User: Fold this.
Amino acid sequence: MRYLHVPAVNPPPQPLPALVLVHGLMGYSFSWRFNLEEFAQHRDVYAVDLLGIGHSERPRPGEADYGMVAAAERLLGLIRSLGHRQVHLLGTSHGGAVAMMAAALDAASPEPRISRLVLVAPAHPFMTNARKRIAFLSTSLGRLLSRVVLWRSARLRILEVRRLYADESRITEETRIGYDVNLAEISSFDYALAVVRTWKEDMRRLKDALPSIAHLPVLLLWGEEDRAVACHSGLMLREYFRHAQYVVLPGVGHMSYEEVPEVFNRTVLQFLDS
Assistant:
């Protein structure tokens, strides 16, 4: 697993918990290009490329387990290898679900490291608007369209990115080129389809795991116009945490960290420093 490490620019005398960032399903560490520098002013920051995507190794689905528990175990193994006694974990979309599962596994260990969660439009067991899309991708036709049609069409790949933004004018050429690292690579679709294949069972396991992380302070951050994971579903997820802040950003889609990075960075840091 490849990751970026940005050391703290002005570390305080008493070190702050490190911040680990986990991207969404077809994202990678590139997703955090507007956030890394700001987050690293006073703390170490790490941006992960999950196994199978981005610039990490890409084993074929039959050679690696891309289920949520396996992804969470790999993420937790990386976190423990970094040498920090406390870590704050930020995950978005599919990465938010992986982050919650990693926190649940961590909570069951003798020396837990994860002390706070930031979940940005995370995939979760109570999201209803994405169920039909996920079910379709689990069919033979859905797999064919994703793996062949979308991969071969640059126009469709651009439309897929646009779907995640509320304001398409914020999409730049850099955005298109950056995400083509994944969207123009056929193995990325094999990875995504392998993740979707175990989705239903993974969400059942995640629901069962939520009580074990109910004690963690959590920020639930959504864009009001999110078409991938509806913001109102976050209210149901909030009920599973005893110390939760639920923030909705108006006029923003699924990728608030890219659409409105200044607002996003300020909101996250206020929570982490509170």
User: Anything to note?
Assistant: The first strand starts at residue 3 and ends at 6. The two ends are 31 Å apart (CA to CA). Residues 3-128+201-273 form a domain with the Rossmann fold fold (CATH 3.40.50.1820).
